[in-house]
Each structure stands twice: as C-alpha cells, then as structure tokens.
C-alpha cells in the first residue's frame, strides 16, 4: 500500500495517561472506564476507536452512495466498541448502527451498508480479526 496520509500519535502512561497527535490537534487525557476498574476521568481507547470507525464508515457510506446516485448525506453511523476477556488477554467487538434517511428503501440501504463495509479502511483492518455487526436502523 502507498500511504496517502499517515497519522501519528503518541500515548504515555497507558490508559491513565495522555494521547497527543504529532500536529497537536489531538491532545487529551486518557482514563480507564469505571467498568474496567478506573475512575473514568478521561477518554479511553475504545471511545477513540469508536469515533474513528464511525467517521470512517460514514465517509465510506457517502462514497458508495454517491457512486450509486443515492443521497445518504443525512445518514448517521454510531459505533459501539466493546472490550472483554478473550482467552488469556482481551478482545474487541464492534456494532455499527447505521441510520439511513427515510428516502432510502431497505434493500438499497442494506446494499449500500454492505458495500461501505467493503470500502471502509477500518472494516478492512478489522475483517477476520474482530466481530463487526452491521445494524440498519
């Protein structure tokens, strides 16, 4: 792959530290969620992953919609990223909830969401590694 863009971020002190991008646009405190034994006083890697995946999938949906000449500009994507024990370590699972405009019929919407799942870089990176459930609402 020839990278068109490379994002660079540095994290210090793990889940209870700080994450900063090389350009300084992202600079935030990290905190372990209460559900994982932390104080929840910052964002966490799962929230960051969810935000990135939702934004990326939304862009992919827009791309396939434009190609198909279907207006999905008012669609929204919500990513739910779960973390839990998996074998000796931990694993992730994702649910992508896609809300399509009322003007898009169910069959067309399903086809576009499935095409977006083939185009989205996050979907391609996770395919075969973690479960990703597509839900159209």
Automatic annotation (TrEMBL):
InterPro entries recorded: KH_dom-like_a/b (IPR015946), OHR (IPR019953), OsmC/Ohr_fam (IPR003718), OsmC/Ohrsf (IPR036102)
Family matches, as SUPFAM superfamilies: OsmC-like
Pfam families per UniProt: OsmC
Domain of life: Bacteria
One biological process term in Gene Ontology: response to oxidative stress
Family (UniProt): Belongs to the OsmC/Ohr family.
Name of the molecule in the record: Organic hydroperoxide resistance protein
């Amino acid at each position: 792959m020839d990278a068109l863009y490379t994002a660079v971020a540095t994290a210090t002190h793990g889940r209870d530290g700080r994450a900063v991008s090389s350009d300084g646009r992202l600079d935030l405190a990290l905190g372990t969620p209460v559900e994982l034994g932390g104080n929840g006083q910052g964002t966490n890697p799962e929230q960051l992953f969810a935000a990135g995946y939702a934004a990326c999938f939304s862009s992919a949906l827009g791309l396939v919609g434009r190609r198909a000449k279907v207006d999905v500009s008012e669609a929204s994507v919500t990513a739910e990223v779960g973390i839990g024990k998996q074998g000796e370590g931990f694993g992730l699972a994702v649910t992508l909830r896609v809300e399509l405009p009322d003007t898009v019929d169910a069959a067309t919407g399903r086809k576009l969401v499935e095409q977006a799942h083939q185009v989205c870089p996050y979907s391609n990176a996770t395919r075969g590694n973690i479960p990703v459930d597509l839900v159209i609402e």
